[in-house]
Amino acid sequence: MADKNDHNPRRIGLYPGTFDPITNGHLDVIARAARLLDKLVVGVAINTGKGPMFTLEERVELVRAEIETIATRNGMVIEVVPFDTLLIDFARKVGASMIVRGLRAVSDFDYEFQMTGMNYRMAPDVETVFLMASEGHQFIASRLVKEVARLGGDISSFVPALTLERILKRIRG
Question: Does some domain include residue 2?
Fold first, then answer.
């Protein structure tokens, strides 16, 4: 098995998402994926169709800041890279042999099942691995976090501290 500090890690995983905003659920999946891999790439998708609260650059910055302790704790490399290409093309570009996806509920499964099939057809050498969200994070969705925040609700248990600060500043500003 490769040393986690090697410059040529064997198991590279890609965890893609829009991360608008990054939530405690995302961090849970990242921390758990980090234990399975030699290197993890967190791919931040542009996806302007979702009407993001934060710019791509802001989302990349927040993800980098919020995952720093996870990388340090696991003694591994976690890169945060923006992308605007087909997921499989991006996975190949970063050398990933595994795409990590988080599942919160059965409703996520239908969409993920279709995406996995499409991705496998295009790249059978890239596996998709699902990690169930931990019990305390199964209901957290970025879309709901933004909605609750915009309506004045308390989101402090759904997002990490820096992200909370930035969301509140964005809403108030």
Answer: no
* Residue 54 maps to a domain: yes
Per residue in 35-70, pLDDT tens? Answer: 999 999 999 999 767 678 999 999 999 999 999 999
pLDDT tens-digit readout, 28-42:
999 999 999 999 999
Which domain, by its residues, includes 33? 12-172
Q: Is 104 noted as a catalytic residue in this protein? A: yes
Domain-located, residue 3: no
- What is the CATH classification number for the domain harbouring 135? 3.40.50.620
Is this structure's pTM higher than 0.85?
A: yes
Residue 103 burial (CB < 10 Å; 0-12/13-18/19+)? middle
Q: Active-site residue among 4, 92, 104, 170?
A: 104
**Catalytic member of 10, 35, 50, 150:** 50
Based on the residue annotation, tell me whether 146 is a catalytic residue of this protein.
Answer: no
- Dihedral sign (CA 93, 99, 102, 105): positive
